[in-house]
Amino acid sequence: MAIEARDPFTKYISFYHVVEYFFDEVYRRKIIVEMRDRITDPSFSYKSDKSIYELAKFANKKMKNDDKNGRGNEFESLKYVLNEYVPIESLKDGLDELNSTLVQYYATKNVSFAGTNNKIAWNDSVGVYTTVARRVYETRNALVHTKSDQSQKQYKPQKHKELLKREIPLIQVIAEKVIHSTSTVL
Q1: Using one digit for the tens of pLDDT, what is the confidence trace for 100-112?
Q2: CA–CA separation, 172 vs 178, rounded Å?
Q3: End-to-end Cα, the chain, rounded Å
Q4: More confident residue, 114 or 67
Q5: pLDDT at 92
Q6: What is the 3-state secondary structure (H, E, C) of the chain?
Q7: CA-based radius of gyration for the chain
Q8: Smallest Cα–Cα separation from 140: which of 12, 7, 4?
Q9: Rounded to 5 degrees, what angle do the CA atoms 170, 107, 155 make?
Q10: CB–CB of 15/175 below 8 Å?
């Protein structure tokens, strides 16, 4: 749908849906790894009330945002999917292939209709996934979660269509990297 769509809203949301498809799977796997690490840590003791209580607090905190279907916090899930399936250098290379100015653009320009601090910090090896996720997630939220009291974070097609078109290469390359990373050769 994303490839065929002409409307930037439909394109963006369709590419986002590719990434979103993996949220539950990656989030659950991440929680399981974190829980397993905690219970196998030498400092953990099933006989220690304090250890059990700390584990319960950790699990409660992680699951706090889950709904009845076990889905996790979407922003965190997006970061997990990016971290697992989209190497940053590969993302930058994919963007460069489309247009050599995109990496710099995403580092220096905000998505004005989505918020004020969503530039990508490509050189921050620790926080780069957070900044990529923030830009993608805030853009997506401006498209589908507009609220009357947040007019500064609303996508208005007549006003913002060209700005949204600039965001499509980022979500497109991300979606392509996810598809490539999760595919198997037939």
Answers
A1: 999 999 999 999 8
A2: 10
A3: 23
A4: 114
A5: 97
A6: CCCCCCCHHHHHHHHHHHHHCCHHHHHHHHHHHHHHHHHHCCCCCCCCHHHHHHHHHHHHHHHCCCCCCCCCCHHHHHHHHHHHHCCHHHHHHHHHHHCCCHHHHHHHCCCCCCCCCCCCCCCCCCCHHHHHHHHHHHHHHHHHCCCCCCHHHCCCHHHHHHHHHHHHHHHHHHHHHHHHHHCCCC
A7: 19
A8: 12
A9: 55
A10: yes
Q: How confident is the model at residue 179 (pLDDT cuts 50, 70, 90)?
A: very high
pLDDT tens digits for range 4-13: 888 999 999 9
Q: Which residue shows structure tokens 């002409």?
A: 6
For the stretch 113-135, what's the b/e string if a residue is b when 16 or more beta carbons lie within 10 angstroms of its beta carbon? bbbeebbbbbeeeeebbbbbbbb
Percent of the chain past pLDDT 70, that is, above it, reads 92
